[in-house]
Amino acid sequence: MSRLLRTLLAACLLALVPGCGTDTRDPLVVLGPWTGEEGKAFEAALDELDDGTGRTYTYEGTRSLRETLVSQLEADDPPDVAVLNSIGELTEYARRDKLRPLVDESAERAFAPWSPTLIVDNRQRTFWVPLKIDLKSLVWSKRGAPGDRPTWCVGLASQATSGWPGTDWIEDLVLHRAGPALYTQWATGRLDWRDPAVKGAWTSWARLLGKRTPEAVEQSLTTSFEGTSTADGQPRGLLDSPGFDCTHEHQSAFIRYVYAGDDVEVEPSARYLGGPSAYRDTFEVAGDMAAVFSDDPDAQELVARLSSRAGRELWRGEAEPEVRPLFPDTAGLALPKSATPVEREIHSLLTSRAHTLCFDASDVMAPELRDAFHRAVLEFFRDPTERQLDSLLDQLETIRVQTNTDSGTDRSFRPPQAICEPQG
């Protein structure tokens, strides 16, 4: 029995029983990507959230988000609300009529570049809103490490989505060397994967990482982006992991939860990537966006409350500093007084120093193309030869062309066209 049907039956029973004033409807189900301390903080915020409906919430956190959601949709038992970091997946669900357009109160918080509008059924609509965001164009290093001779940490394993730390490198190189316009064309399927700017990003990545032994390559392919674990199962981070003799790591702002001390510092990645100075203050960003899969009006109310100023402050207040969520500058929330130096640096980059913000390219692509991109990065890392690269780019171009060929109807996949947003 689907969640919606259970909810409707419960409502009918209430209506048929005189004097029954207790709300026995099932909790609204929220599916999201946060586990561990992040998941606990979000769940605590849900428990404290008063949305005026009397409803309660169940949070399901998983690292295998796409697989879980696809399984629930196939069983006709989707969550009421799901939080996804892929615009490509959200676009796919919207065009397949799996999402409900957001009510105006939430749609007003659909800040760019995280929530572009889509045209579905000849109407321009908003289907998701960012709950939290991350800054991706960052390099973390051991304090005092020489920046002119970095040795790079690489951990590419990540359960069902292994490879994305490598795609982040490729994306950042395209953005900083070719600029937002070409980056947008590539991310939205309007540029050949064999274009010199795209191919050059792959070869530049290989040069930056330098020659690696077969043992080091295998270690990176089989080690999580979180690094090795301590005796009590906590991730160390690659910079602090035994066996990784490295000084610098290219990673998103979220990784600060494993670098909570003061021995690691963060800076923009542009210094290490090269490219014109005009793109130095252009940053790649990601986000976790809430979308409504249910016809239950309380699901819309929940998203409205979560994306509100009060909802964001409640969530931030429940989180420890190392997993405290970041929000778009347009949300109008100042940093808390207890913000760490790393938080302040990242906030400054996002708000006062960024010239342009561009959404993560692979998370804009059609899911099948994104997944192929992840796999190609793993294969290239193992064998970074030109012959291998040419073969991989041919394969990715074939998938891009096929995706575009299949996008002839209003219900088919077509990515949003505006994924970069000038700031200030």
From TrEMBL:
The keyword Signal applies. It comes from Streptomyces griseorubiginosus. It comes from the Bacteria. The lineage of its organism: Bacteria, Bacillati, Actinomycetota, Actinomycetes, Kitasatosporales. This is Alpha-glucoside ABC transporter substrate-binding protein. Keywords: Signal. Residues 1-22 form the signal peptide.
